[in-house]
Design a protein that fits this description.
The protein has 302 residues and is mainly α. It has helices at 25-32, 39-51, 56-69, 74-84, 92-101, 116-123, 128-133, 142-145, 153-158, 174-196, 207-217, 244-301. It has a domain at 14-217: Orthogonal Bundle (DNA Cyclobutane Dipyrimidine Photolyase, subunit A, domain 3), CATH 1.10.579. The chain has twelve helices and no strands.
Length: 302
């Protein structure tokens, strides 16, 4: 904040000043109120509105949705978080939003676009989080709760869900919104390379290459990886044979043990013999005591 006091209002990377943000008050309002049609996004935004807090994973998902799916200026999201978050910080709040937008100091790859459906399935597999904050979807089974638009009419009616009435349709198609965002970022990057006359090695990736890398960088993978937020699985104990060095140490230990055993036996024998001798001496002393007493009496009579 000392070096960048206007972090909440100005792009840290000035090349993003020309980014083609969209002005869409209706879409912004739907995002703010949790009416986007994407359950994990809506759950997070409703939790924020009702409690003033939100899980860090969901913060990234809803921020990416606003900036990249809707192409709405990150400053709108920053202002909303500043007004609603109880833990809003003047430095971290704009820095985090610029990180998501790609204009920050250590921004994530600008072609990374969170897939809200896969994020929901990955971090809320049973749908408990969505059911709590989006109760109109509570009766949907877990396989459908993160994408209710794919449910059959009978499944929707049995769950008392009517798309467009009780719960909105998705306001954008994920694949189309992602392609639109990549095209917008591509224009910004090309303008930057022209402005600064970058070399061939420095020119940004083409849109097609960027889409391919985006598949690797975001959640477009067909196979969902294990959650990094989950507790790590305890490693299995090695079952392979011990190494030669370990065998040597064990052999040496056995040799030392063999040498120590005789000494222990000798100490035990010495203890036993000492006990026996002590018992014998005690018995003999007990036998001699009455005789000595009789001798003293005889002397006394004389």
């Amino acid at each position: 904040m000392f070096d960048h006091p206007n972090l909440a209002t100005e792009n840290l990377q000035s090349t993003f000043d020309a980014f083609p943000w969209r002005i869409d008050d209706v879409a912004l309002r739907a995002w703010q109120r949790g009416r986007t049609g994407y359950p994990i996004v809506d759950a997070g935004m409703r939790q924020l509105w009702q409690t003033g807090v939100m899980h860090n994973r969901v913060r990234m998902v809803v921020a990416s949705f606003l900036v990249k799916h809707l192409l709405i200026d990150w400053r709108e999201g920053e202002r909303w978080f500043w007004d609603t978050l109880v833990d809003a910080d003047a430095g971290s709040n704009p820095a985090n939003w610029q990180w998501v937008a790609g204009s920050g100091a250590d921004a994530a790859p600008y072609f990374r676009v969170f897939n809200p459906v896969l994020q929901g399935e990955k971090f809320d597999p049973a749908g408990d989080y969505v059911r709590r904050w989006v109760p109109e979807l509570a009766k949907l089974p877990a396989p459908l709760i993160h994408h209710p638009w794919s449910a059959a009419p009978l499944e929707l009616s049995s769950a008392e869900v009517e798309l467009g009435v009780t719960y909105p349709h998705p306001m954008v198609d994920h694949a189309q919104a992602r392609a639109r965002a990549l095209a917008a970022y591509n224009k910004t990057r090309v303008a930057r390379s022209t402005r600064f006359s970058l070399t061939a090695a420095q020119i940004p990736l083409s849109l097609s290459d960027r889409q391919t890398q985006g598949v690797e960088m975001d959640d477009e993978k067909s196979v969902i990886e294990q959650s990094t937020d989950a507790m790590p699985v305890a490693p299995e104990l090695p079952t392979e044979a011990p190494k030669p060095a370990v065998k040597k140490v064990r052999r040496a230990a056995k040799k030392v043990a063999k040498k120590v055993k005789p000494a222990k036996k000798a100490a035990k024998k010495a203890k036993k013999s000492a006990k026996k001798s002590a018992k014998k001496s005690a018995k003999t002393a007990a036998k001699k005591a009455p005789k000595k007493a009789k001798g003293k009496k005889k002397k006394a009579k004389r």
